[in-house]
Design brief:
By secondary structure, this protein is α/β, with parallel strands linked by helices.
């Protein structure tokens, strides 16, 4: 079995060790290298050729955003997931503009971390649900400004030609920034059933991940932006 090679760059050794222990339980993962400063990432990437780099956004010397820009400049194919304690939209925007494909909050549980890495390793992108919610709020704010206060979303056109009624409900809750677990609790269904619905939504919409599904849904007026 080919394993997903991972490099972790974070200046907090205890955090690195904690993440490494989580990833060691996943048979398909192999943590091949570690660093504590953004200046090390290019050499680490050149040496280990990882499939995914987990990068702390705040580090002394060179922060994660700067390090990602440098890494992507030399290795455009590099897949970086930013690690952060901040869910503020400005941090997320800077991370994505630098070329990161994922943004994880350090409060995430083990299952979510594993899922995020698998999504990014397979070519998708991943944002923590709380971060997705903040980006949606920012999208609404910018839309209101663009339309000089006239932005309204009274006419929500549910995509019943494409998705089932239940899938439309799940899509709305994804837009609200809810995780699979909270969606399940809201709709009184199991988390496994939620995952099946999400997979079906992505396939029917022709997108690779939850973030793309939310963005597409907003652009088409399929969901309410709260």
């Amino acid at each position: 079995m080919t394993k997903t090679k991972i490099v972790i760059v974070d200046d907090h050794q205890l955090f690195r060790e904690g993440v490494k222990r989580i990833l060691d339980f996943e048979d398909s993962f192999d943590v091949v290298g570690e660093g504590d400063d953004g200046t090390e990432v290019v050499e680490l990437y050149r040496r280990f050729e990882p499939d995914v780099v987990l990068m702390d956004i705040n580090m002394p010397g060179m922060n994660g955003v700067e390090a990602t820009e440098v890494l992507k400049n030399e290795f455009p194919e590099a897949k970086v997931i930013m690690l952060s304690i901040h869910d503020d939209e400005s941090y997320v925007s800077h991370a994505l503009k630098s070329g990161a494909l994922g943004y994880m909050l350090k409060e995430m549980d083990a299952d979510a971390i594993v899922q995020a890495i698998k999504v990014v390793a397979s070519g998708g992108s991943y944002l923590h649900p709380k971060v997705t919610h903040n980006l949606v709020a920012e999208f609404r704010r910018l839309s209101e400004r663009e339309h000089k206060g006239s932005f309204q979303q009274n006419d929500i056109r549910r995509p019943l030609h494409l998705l089932t009624k239940r899938e439309c409900e799940v899509l709305q809750l994804l837009t609200d920034g809810q995780s699979n677990r909270t969606i399940g609790e809201t709709l009184f269904i199991s988390e496994k059933t939620v995952k099946n619905h999400v997979s079906s939504i992505l396939q029917k919409m022709g997108v690779n991940d939850r973030t793309q599904a939310v963005v597409t849904a907003i652009k088409n007026g399929w969901v309410e932006v709260k």
